[in-house]
Amino acid sequence: METQDSKPLLDFTRQVDGMRERVHVPWGCREQFVLPDFPGGEVLERSRITCIGLSEVIPPYKIDRRNARDHVLLVPLRGGGTFSGVHGSSRLSPGTALILPAHCHYQYWATGPWKVLWLHVRSEDLWGLGGMRTPLILENVDSEALMTFIHQVFLERRLNDQYSDAAIASCLRLVVTQLARIFDCRRGNEAQHHQRLLALWSLVEERLDHRWTVDELAREYGVSRTRLGQIIRKTEGKTPMERVRSLRMNRAQEMLIRGDYTLDAIAHQLGFSTSFALSKTYKKHFGYAPAREPKNQELS
Length: 300
Known about the structure:
Blueprint: E1 10-16, E2 19-25, E3 30-34, H1 42-46, E4 49-57, E5 62-66, E6 70-85, E7 88-92, E8 96-100, E9 105-122, E10 136-139, H2 143-159, H3 164-206, H4 214-221, H5 225-236, H6 240-258, H7 263-269, H8 275-286
Antiparallel strand pairs: 1-2, 2-5, 3-4, 4-9, 5-9, 6-7, 6-8, 6-9, 8-10
Helix pairs in contact: 2-3, 4-5, 6-8, 7-8
């Protein structure tokens, strides 16, 4: 274990072909990995996986990477870590997986004893990652199966008998199959988030007079406020409160066009303290004041 005054096991910064990487690994960490040119590793080459490994780390273990050439997948197996990117930070725990696309900036670090499976995938579209631009956290991942298969890989490497190469190849095929399920889970997660967001915005539209907060929206959705922000920014390109504001402004416009409500009445029904506050937000959203909105038109 590293003490406050001791030197870390690894602590370096490197730049290779535009990638910048800072690595800090304290004493007490352990890492095993397999490369495509290792005995039994041919399946990795066919799957465009450049490296797969298993790390058991402790704080202050940290990786900071910019403009990486490969996509990276992290699958926590035991303990916990934290990920940070341009859209905030999230906790990483067993049952989740994190896809880090090539050419973006991210950091991840241990918040306690942390066992994590990781792999680097070439930035080609074999795994359907070509269009990814921002990191993505997947949920309901079967990490136990992956842990069983990868442990057997490293057990066979230690045995190193006449059967080991074939056994390693078989185990790696099972690992790759499980990884394919995880990447397919990405599409299922996106569809699930779409349905849950529809339900959330339907609830908000029913209660536009309520002064929603991000914490309340996150509770209704069932995730942390940070995670909700990441989901909405990825799917809609807005923050949660920008989306709520947009729903309010669309309703205000409908009410103004119908001509049945005063500005004070609209402000009251949409949760604004005064008609002045509504007018200010309306002008910022549409680029003109509510008074310029044409009245008594049919809405399609």
